[in-house]
Amino acid sequence: MISPASHPSQAAMGRRSMLGVAGGVAGLAALAQLPVGRSEAAPRPAGGDYPFTLGVASGDPTPDGMVLWTRLVPKPFEAGGGMPRRKVAVQWQIARDARFRHVVMEGRSWALPELAHSVHVEVEGLAPDREWFYRFRYRHDVSPVGRTRTTPRRTGRHAAMSFAFASCQDWASGYYSALAHLAEEDLDLVLHLGDYVYEGGIPADGGYRKTPVPAVLQTAPRDVERWRMQYALYKSDPDLQTAHARFPWLVTWDDHEVQNDYANTQSQYEGDITALRTAAYQAWYEHQPVRRPANLAEPRIYRRVKWGGLAQFDLVDGRQYRSIPPCGWGEADACDAAYDPAVTMLGKDQERWLYDGLKSSEARWDVLASNVMVGRLDHDGTAGDLLWHDAWDGFPAARNRLTRAWQQAGTRNPVVLTGDWHSTFVNDIHADFDRPDSKLLATEFVGTSLSSNGDGEVYGPYYGPMIKFNPHIKFFDGDRRGYVRCRLDRDELRTDLQMVTTVSRRDAPKYTHASFVVEDGRPGAHKL
């Protein structure tokens, strides 16, 4: 959006243990999972400072496990993070209770300097559909305790789950007061749909937060060391840390994790950005609770989470593989070139993965978690063909392939959840937006930002006049900050727009701005 372990199965045996080329980085990620001998020395951080300054997180849950994450970084805004330039061993534990009286699994994992001393433990072997607690230890320091869960293998007639989705958390635009409230919810899962960090330098006074920042943060990140500091600043926020520690997350990226509105390795501002993207992607992996990729320079991050027979979540990557928008960057007129079958939003491999997954899905609800809006947004009605080409509007042939895939798979309840827009939309998704009378297939909920745009009124005045040209847009709100809480059962999906009154203070109150229901077998949202 433009801005105006060791491997647990190995560890269980003990209990019952861009760096030149992309392949080298991937090898290091795998090395971090190898068993660690108990005699391995673990030096103190420089100065003896507390290493778990960025908290803990979990993500990518399965019926028997998840990914556990932390990073050792006692000095977040110094090169090397205040850690020795060597690999160190980190202990981890999983328990049934928050006091760790019933530890069920433990092990050690390497924290490598080449990966910013981050730790990604890929857990296997736990019981399904249960709550778990985890923590890390480095020498005498113990991390905060995190809470996570495994997914159900199957769900019965009374199956239900609660989750939330959010996106767009520019640190300098305001406090994460919405995340403080999200952390108090009773949720099974959180989806973060992109713009976890922003690519610019931080104002000296901290922008909207009025919190002075070190000089090193005031210039934009261009290499991996500086990107690490950007993530460290964002993850130092206590409310973000609390929300991560409370629930497992599914995380994808959008554009600002690299550069505004980029496509594949190309930017409208500076052409080829391969080197910038490689550094940014590595730092993203180092700071997220995700599984190790085969290639950190071109990581496959799209993935699928099944919630028994109730729901299938397909989290997609709409940046790394997309074509350069054929009709122009950003706001531009529609053109015939965008209908070329070769033009893609997701890339051929990801499309095949997504559509095959829809065909094989046995879930009652199929949720597409997207970084940019699928629904059409006509900017000027009959006066022209002006669209925003950074979203699916710039890739109509790809969008038509998606809607055909839903129809061919007989998808019972397709739902799209979207970030990016710093605004809220509730959209009917038709089979072909060039034929407004085409079949209604799905419902899309576009969530607003957590902090981006601050308390300013930007998109309400900008997009508001366009809504009359788009009868499939059933709800729009342009200038509130918050997240979307969802309750899903066999009969309906309910969404509640949870907004905060301001992002100028951490303790801003929350309120429900509007609520909607999608009924089983009936696409289209109804406002409550």
Give a short synopsis of this structure.
With 528 residues, the protein is an alpha+beta fold.
Structural summary, described in words:
- Helix 4 (224-235) crosses helix 6 (274-286) and helix 7 packs parallel to helix 8.
- The chain folds into two domains: 5-154, Immunoglobulin-like, CATH 2.60.40; 163-253 and 301-527, Purple Acid Phosphatase, chain A, domain 2 (4-Layer Sandwich), CATH 3.60.21.70.
- 17% of the residues lie in helices and 28% in strands.
- It is globular.
- The strands form five sheets. A ten-stranded mixed sheet has the order 5-2-1-11-10-9-23-24-25-26. A seven-stranded mixed sheet has the order 14-15-17-19-21-20-22.
- The chain has nine helices and 26 strands.
- The protein has 528 residues and is an alpha+beta fold.
Rg value: 22 Å
CATH class category of the largest domain: Alpha Beta
Helix content: 10-25%
The chain-level structural class is: alpha+beta
CATH architecture field of the largest domain: 4-Layer Sandwich
Furnish the topology, listing elements before pairings:
Blueprint: H1 8-15, H2 22-31, E1 56-62, E2 65-71, E3 88-95, E4 103-111, E5 118-122, E6 131-138, E7 141-142, E8 146-149, E9 160-166, H3 177-182, E10 189-192, H4 224-235, H5 238-246, E11 248-251, E12 266-267, E13 271-272, H6 274-286, E14 303-307, E15 311-315, E16 331-333, H7 348-360, E17 365-370, E18 386-388, H8 396-409, E19 414-418, E20 424-430, E21 440-446, H9 459-463, E22 473-477, E23 481-489, E24 492-500, E25 510-519, E26 522-527
Parallel strand pairs: 1-11, 9-10, 10-11, 15-17, 17-19, 19-21
Antiparallel strand pairs: 1-2, 2-5, 3-4, 3-6, 6-7, 6-8, 9-23, 12-13, 14-15, 16-18, 20-21, 20-22, 23-24, 24-25, 25-26
